[in-house]
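Below is how a single chain appears once it has passed through the pipeline. First comes the sequence as given, then the structure the pipeline wrote out for it. We keep one example in the README because the format questions we get most often are answered faster by looking than by reading.
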Amino acid sequence: MMTEPNSEELSTDPAQILREAGLRATQQRTSVLTILAASTDHPTVDDVYDKARQLDDTVSIATIYRTMLLLETAGLIRKLTFDDAPARYEMTPNRDHDHLIDIDTGELIEIPGREMSELRARIVNDLGYDVVSQHTILRGRRKH
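Resulting structure:
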C-alpha cells in the first residue's frame, strides 16, 4: 500500500522536486510542473501546452509531450486514460484516490476518502495479495 509522506517533508518548489527526482530543472519542466500543480481540472497535453505557451511562446508541443513522458516516467505526474478520450494528467497524489467521470459533461471529479481504498486492500489481502497501487474510475450522471 502507498505510504503517506509527512506533509512537512513535501516540497512545493518545482525545481527542487525535479532535482529530488534526479532530473535537471529546466524551464520547460518547471513550467509543466507548475501548471499541473495549479490545475484542478486534470488537463490534457493540449491544455498544458496552451498554458505553457502563455508563459513561453517558444515552447513546442513536441517539447511538452517529451516533458510529460519524462515526468510520468520519473513518477512525478500520473497519466489518466479514460475510454477514447484524450489522456489527462495530475500530479502524482500523496494518497491514492479515485475519479468520477460525469458522462454528460466529461468533467473529471476526484473522490477523496479512504473507505474505497481500505475496502479494496482488505479484499485483495483476503485473496493473498498486497496492493501496490489502485485507481478506480466511476462513471455517473448528475441526479436532476
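The longest helix spans residues 61-73.

See the next section for the split statistics.
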